[in-house]
Amino acid sequence: MENTRNTRQRQLILSLLREADRPMSINEIHSQVSHSLPRIAKSTIYRNIDNLLNQNLIEKYHFNDNEIFYRIKEDVDEHKHFIICDKCKNVFDLPACPIHEIEDAIQKEGFIIKDHQIQIIGICSKCAGEEKLK
Ligand SMILES: [Zn+2]
Ligand SMILES: [Zn+2]
Predict the structure, then answer these.
(1) What would the pLDDT profile of 60-99 be if each residue is shown by its tens digit?
(2) Which residues lie at CB < 5 A from ion ligand 2?
(3) What is the architecture of the domain spanning 2-133?
(4) How many Å lie between the centroid of ligand 1 and the Cα of residue 5?
């Protein structure tokens, strides 16, 4: 019984992230999942998210220090970075990852790299345009 319920929650979170096709915060995921499972606790969402992370089905991103977003991975080898507009919160893909070269150099020093993040803070061209009009 417990397992069936867990599978249902998991599937729900996965399909939510798949449909959204952009990184979502825990709060967003929680409020969306509550439409189908009104009594679900945020701690339950966290537990499911942790499982999905461990299975490498989703990825975690840090934005603006304390905001964490989750996004579905198209495949396990997928590697992407994002920038979120500070104003409209729209998500934009970074064209490439420049970190691997740096990682290679650090790894030669014997450092074991587990993950990396790229954090760029700013506003998109649309919001920048609106700012100029003020
Ligand atoms: Zn914007
Ligand atoms: Zn990268």
Answers:
(1) 887 766 778 898 988 877 788 888 888 988 888 888 898 9
(2) 97, 99
(3) Orthogonal Bundle (1.10)
(4) 38
